[in-house]
Specification:
single chain; Rossmann fold; 7-stranded mixed beta sheet; U3 snoRNA binding; UTP25_NTPase-like
Length: 762
């Protein structure tokens, strides 16, 4: 790290022209001092001392080779160095700032599109830079590894060999430890009413497995006070429909003993004054959610909100996951003592209490900040009081890697509250960490095969699983996952949904290696490859989306059944549009879901775009949710030589500034605008007079946000504004979230275009 820091200090000492010339040509300018560059190369890429022992001829030839490679690696350093990159972007943004402020002529606009934009850290520019500098980044990475630099905790590198805690392996081994009498659950295996025992000890017959594989699910509806309308579905015989408990006694939930005392203290921050008189340790939402979780049914809850109920939901599933792990480990430790004390020749089939691999719970979350909060919740739930602190290994390292930088200044821009809630803290989306829990201790950074809980992002778990044909890939640790928690699933639609699908294809498969397992302790359900029928999946999202629904319907095989919350929106986000704007919903016809993509493009090109080609219809923003549709439209606009500009999630800051300025001044008639850019940036686009929603937004509140951008137009009082929305019968869920369920039913029945005029009070 010291060598790299010294190299960066020397980089800063170079002038801007020197950096630019070195970046473009890969060599120093002839008018500049060569000594400085040689010092820079020596500090970043020092020659090995063993070379001096060789002959002079060999030394000269090797020096020449290393000098050439050094220039290329220095070039890569310049391309990927955050300091040099930020300096270049600041120079460009400063020039844009003066032009932007002259164009907008108001303090708010100059703040948004000028200096604040130039100073903000752009997280989404990374993919475009990676495309151009993949090879050079790999060269720098290999050189750092050759120099002995510790890169295991550097999140900027695609970590291959990350840090794992090997030192505490024996302390957290389930095979060599025994149950302590005061830990509280020695007799857990004797509680027949324990939901954990009932679920894991159930033996499925071959007929039942065949039935679940072939027959469709039967469903029934139920109305709960807080969750609303629930859909219970199951393939096997109809189970008793759950009823929402009005009052919950903690002792009746069969929690592991420490959790009975710690949960009320940890959760009291979410209890309102209305809940406290009843002495309930749960909020109404938590009570109903935990009732379903504790029955070990699959659950899909699509009304998670980062502002209102996100944290109380996180606490509820953390309690359930920790309770499951503590019970499972207590059973193993208790059986260890029984096996130690048993007489020779005793049957060992009574001690089948493990899976093929140790990990039991997999928690998928989008950002490091989410993992940080989960671990803190675990620690709080395990600490009975202030005097009895649990031992947490590698806690300092964990806070350093998953916490936010205290010196990092927040961007000087106002964002919506939901944006601030989602992107709080460390928002790095490439991570994974194993957590082992044993009685009164917690081990962070445990190797996966020694972990009880794995917390990871979709990208982090995807890079471990790998792809078919890759030499280094591993997914055996997913073979015995008993609880899968996917939180904030809607965010993965904005990241890369393919990672989630890839995970679902590799979970609960038979491992390729034994990994030192004692097969006499493995449950028969795991040996018979029936793990997926016992896995509980908890899926939380902020919205209902066909892709999320597909995962819940096609990849969840829990033999107990599934529960999905299916509440329909009554009003829709169109009621939050505050500008007087006519909305025209134009229906397109498609024969199937697969053909709707081509049908939408053809409908837009033939029916919609000709109406906006006239110069009178200037300042037209085309909102495109899908990046692939955006690329298709961009190529078509270029082919037709239309006067347009475009902004997507990979557009650099300088190009974004130019596009916004051109669109505001009317120099560009069209602006192609992607949904993912809006999700990650939430910039206010000024100058809009005509809106075209190429497809309904994934997030319904984005519809009102985009429409309300029209009020930022200076000449909006006398302008004639329009809003056109394309939809098909396959967009029923998105349409209902925008216009409400009643209007959706009317619009789907009628094949005519629908005109709505919103005054801000509808």
């Amino acid at each position: 790290m010291g060598k790299r820091r010294a190299g960066r200090e020397l980089l800063r000492s170079l002038s801007k022209k020197q950096k630019k010339h070195l970046r473009e040509f890969g060599e120093e300018h002839p008018f500049y001092d060569k000594l400085l560059l040689l010092l820079l190369l020596h500090s970043c890429f020092p020659f090995q001392s063993e070379d001096s022992d060789k002959s002079s001829a060999e030394s000269d030839s090797e020096t020449e080779v290393e000098q050439v490679s050094g220039y290329h690696k220095l070039l890569a350093t310049l391309k990927t160095s955050p300091e040099s990159e930020s300096e270049e972007e600041e120079d460009e943004s400063e020039s844009e700032e003066s032009e932007e402020s002259e164009a907008e002529m108001d303090s708010e606009g100059s703040q948004e599109t000028g200096g604040a934009e130039g100073g903000e850290e752009d997280k989404k520019d990374v993919p475009e830079e990676e495309e151009g500098a993949t090879d050079t980044a790999e060269q720098v990475l290999s050189q750092e590894q050759a120099d002995g630099t510790d890169i295991s905790c550097d999140p900027r590198h695609g970590v291959i060999e990350e840090f794992t805690d090997v030192k505490h392996e024996s302390e957290f081994s389930l095979e060599t430890n025994f149950m302590e009498e005061e830990s509280g659950d020695c007799n857990a295996d004797k509680r027949d009413s324990n939901p954990f025992k009932q679920h894991m000890d159930k033996e499925l017959e071959d007929k039942e497995i065949e039935k679940m594989s072939t027959l469709p699910k039967t469903s029934s509806q139920s109305q709960w006070p807080r969750l609303g309308q629930l859909i219970f579905s199951s393939t096997l015989e109809k189970h008793k429909t759950l009823k929402a408990d009005k009052e919950v006694d903690v002792k009746q939930l069969h929690l592991h003993k420490p959790l009975e005392s710690t949960w009320p203290k940890v959760n009291k921050q979410f209890l309102s004054s209305a809940d406290k008189p009843s002495n309930s340790p749960f909020t109404p939402l938590q009570r109903e959610l935990f009732c379903i979780m504790n029955s070990y049914r699959d659950l899909f809850y699509p009304e998670r909100n980062a502002l209102t109920n996100g944290e109380e939901i996180r606490h509820a599933y953390c309690l359930h996951a920790l309770n499951h792990v503590l019970k499972a480990n207590a059973q193993v430790l208790s059986n260890n003592a029984k096996r130690r004390d048993r007489k020779p020749g005793t049957d060992t089939d009574d001690y089948r209490d493990q899976g093929l691999t140790r990990p039991k719970v997999l928690m998928i979350v989008p950002f490091r900040e989410c993992a940080l909060r989960i671990v803190h919740t675990f620690i709080s739930l395990l600490e009975v009081n202030d005097k009895k602190k649990i031992d947490v290994s590698n806690k300092k390292r964990f806070k350093g890697e998953f916490g936010s930088d205290p010196e990092e200044k927040p961007p000087n821009l106002k964002r919506p509250e939901d944006y601030e809630a989602v992107f709080a803290g460390n928002i790095d989306d490439h991570f994974r960490i194993g957590v082992a829990i044993l009685q009164k201790s917690m081990r962070l950074y445990a190797p996966f095969y020694s972990s009880d809980i794995i917390i990871a992002s979709p990208l982090g778990i995807r890079t471990v699983i790998g792809a078919e044909g890759e030499k280094k890939r591993d997914f055996d640790f997913l073979s015995s996952i008993e609880i899968l928690i996917i939180d904030q699933a809607d965010i993965y639609l904005m990241q890369n949904w393919e990672h989630v699908l890839h995970l679902m294809k590799h979970i609960n498969l038979l491992p390729l290696d034994s990994h030192g397992v004692d097969f006499s302790r493995v449950r028969m359900l795991n040996l018979n490859n029936c793990s997926k029928y016992y896995r509980q999946t908890l899926l939380f999202s902020a919205l209902q989306d066909p892709q999320i629904n597909s995962v819940f319907n096609k990849h969840c095989f829990n033999f107990i059944g599934q529960v999905a919350v299916r509440n329909v929106p009554l009003t829709g986000s169109i009621s939050h549009v505050v500008v007087q704007l006519p909305h025209v919903f134009r229906r397109l016809e498609a024969e199937s879901v697969t053909s709707v993509i081509d049908a939408r493009f053809q409908f837009f090109v033939d029916k919609v775009l000709p109406e906006y080609r006239d110069a009178i219809m200037s300042h037209t923003l085309v909102y495109v949710p899908s990046y692939f549709d955006y690329v298709r439209l961009r190529n078509y606009f270029k082919k037709e030589d239309l006067n347009f500009t475009h902004i997507c999630e990979y557009t650099k800051k300088a190009a974004v500034c130019r596009a916004r300025r051109f669109f505001l001044k009317g120099e560009k008639q069209f602006l192609l605008f992607t949904e993912r850019f809006h999700f990650y940036k939430r910039y206010t686009i000024k100058g809009i007079r005509n809106l075209i929603f190429y497809e309904l937004p994934t997030y319904s509140h984005f519809y009102s946000e985009i429409c309300n951008m029209l009020k930022a137009t200076d000449s909006g009082v006398d302008a004639t504004w329009t809003c056109t929305v394309l939809y098909s019968k396959y967009d029923a869920q998105k349409l209902a979230a925008v216009v409400g369920i009643d209007r959706t039913a009317q619009m789907l029945q009628s094949k005519k275009n629908v005109h709505l005029f919103v005054t801000g009070e509808n």
